[in-house]
Design goal:
With about 375 residues, the protein is α/β, with parallel strands linked by helices. The chain has a domain of about 130 residues: Leucine-rich repeat, LRR (right-handed beta-alpha superhelix) (Alpha-Beta Horseshoe). The chain is built from six helices and 24 strands. Strand 6, helix 4 and strand 7 form a beta-alpha-beta unit. The longest helix is centred in the first third of the chain and has 14 residues. Bound molecules: 2-acetamido-2-deoxy-beta-D-glucopyranose (7 copies). One 2-acetamido-2-deoxy-beta-D-glucopyranose binds next to loops. It is found in: Cell membrane. It comes from Hevea brasiliensis. It is a single-pass type I membrane protein. This is Leucine-rich repeat-containing N-terminal plant-type domain-containing protein.
């Protein structure tokens, strides 16, 4: 299992979009001041936190709430657009009334926030970015989310201790571009209508307890988008570390524009041949490790992709050393452990990609002489 840490173009574009709508204009602050009712709402909001002395001190000393730490206002209307309190210290939220808020980022706070009531978020009709990752503790997926489903573009509830199943109501999240529910305790199946979130570009629900098949609906995201000439097809699909089962190859034909496909450590099965991967020309990260997958690639196959991360641990690879790896010039991480490969490691293989950082060939029946790799000091090699 390999965890990639890549930032891809689409995410960059998205981040830029996010940045561009939270951005404020420094110069006009002298002219435009915050709106009194929103200032009041922010003060109420702050009262819900137990804030260590010093943090948010500007919230006391400054009259104009647009100059407060973490507050971003529209430079023309003075409406509060974004609240960015990430990495600040805080411990309990109550309520607020910020009807024009577009972005709320409370992620990566050092203290865990205990939330009694975030229902007021449902009264934020323009909220587009909601990043509560790592800080909040919810049990089920909170209901107020569904009230803002039509505007939300970015939703990050990683490590929020979410439990229970994922609601079918996600069908209404038609603007959502990024959905991150990773590292929670979600169970049940992936809703069949996830594919109706037609703007989705990044889906990360890895490290949960989801079971059942990967719905073919996920592939619909892409088909609908191609149909409407949308800019961003589903490009990152991270489903690793769940209990998903069934054959993977049935959804592959619909996912060929993926950049990241991570399904490691599930109970998927099936036979994957080169024909099924022939259209995956954008793929950079492929992690199929620790399932019950059989790979049948011919020795003269030249894939359309150039992978950076390859996880094929525990896949049945056929006894030959995989010749197609010779075409992959940008490999950074390669896990071929426990993959039932035998024979001699070909000499071309040791002419490794200069960016190789991690290589695991352990638990196979490989032979041959290890070349001098002493110059590759930054590489972790497991054999
Ligand atoms: C206000 O900000 C926008 C970008 O958000 C910028 O395009 C515009 O020029 C600014 N207006 C003024 C009056 O500074
Ligand atoms: C929020 O503000 C609106 C008017 O802007 C007001 O009608 C409403 O009662 C307020 N809600 C709360 C919870 O303060
Ligand atoms: C979600 O938030 C976590 C923690 O801040 C971050 O590491 C992760 O990259 C975010 N996920 C996405 C898809 O942006
Ligand atoms: C989706 O939104 C529509 C209209 O806003 C609503 O009638 C419907 O009940 C919602 N569907 C779900 C599953 O929540
Ligand atoms: C999801 O979209 C399909 C069309 O792609 C539509 O037939 C179906 O009714 C939608 N599902 C829901 C729950 O709206
Ligand atoms: C690959 O793309 C071509 C052209 O779009 C299409 O005809 C073919 O069916 C695709 N192959 C697979 C396995 O999806
Ligand atoms: C693997 O592919 C070859 C030719 O593409 C085929 O002859 C063989 O039967 C396949 N093996 C399995 C196990 O499907």
């Amino acid at each position: 299992m390999i965890m990639g840490n890549h930032s891809f173009q689409l995410l960059t574009i998205f981040t830029f979009m996010w940045f561009s709508f939270v951005v404020t204009n420094e110069h006009s602050r002298d002219v435009v001041q915050c709106i009194d009712s929103e200032r009041q709402a922010l003060l109420e909001f702050k009262e819900g936190f137990q804030i260590p002395s010093g943090h948010l001190s500007s919230w006391v000393t400054e009259e104009d709430c647009c100059k407060w730490r973490g507050v971003k206002c529209n430079n023309v209307t003075g409406h509060v657009l974004a609240l960015d309190l990430h990495s600040s210290d805080s411990s309990e939220l109550l309520q607020g009334n910020l009807t024009r808020l577009q972005s709320l980022d409370l992620s990566r706070n050092n203290f865990a926030l205990r939330v009694n009531n975030l229902d007021w978020l449902s009264r934020l009709p323009t909220l587009q970015v909601l990043d509560l990752g790592v800080t909040m503790t919810f049990l089920p997926i909170p209901n107020w989310l569904f009230d803002i489903s039509h505007t939300l573009m970015y939703l990050n509830l990683t490590r929020c201790q979410l439990q229970g199943s994922i609601s079918n109501a996600f069908v209404n999240f038609t603007s959502l571009v990024v959905l991150d529910f990773s590292y929670n305790y979600l169970s049940g199946s992936i809703p069949y209508n996830f594919g109706n979130m037609t703007s989705l570009s990044v889906l990360d629900i890895s490290f949960n307890y989801l079971q059942g098949p990967i719905p073919t609906g996920l592939g619909l995201i892409q088909q609908l988008q191609q149909h409407h000439f949308k800019q961003s097809p589903l490009c990152e699909l991270r489903l690793s570390y769940n209990k998903l089962s069934g054959p993977l190859e049935t959804i592959l034909p619909q996912l060929s524009q993926l950049v990241v496909l991570e399904v490691a450590a599930n109970r998927l099965e099936g036979l994957i041949s080169e024909a099924q991967l022939q259209n995956f020309s954008s793929l950079r990260v492929l992690d199929l490790s620790d399932n019950s997958m059989i790979l049948n690639f011919s020795s003269n196959w030249t894939p359309a992709f150039q992978l950076e991360t390859i996880g094929l641990s525990s896949c049945k690879m056929g006894s030959q050393f995989p010749q197609w790896l010779q075409s992959q010039k940008n490999i950074q991480r390669l896990d071929l452990s426990h993959a039932d490969v035998s024979g001699t490691v070909p000499s071309w293989f040791w002419n490794l990609s200069p960016s190789m950082e991690f290589l695991d060939l352990s638990d196979n029946r490989l032979s041959g002489e290890l070349p001098d790799l002493s110059s590759r000091t930054s590489m972790l090699l497991l054999i």
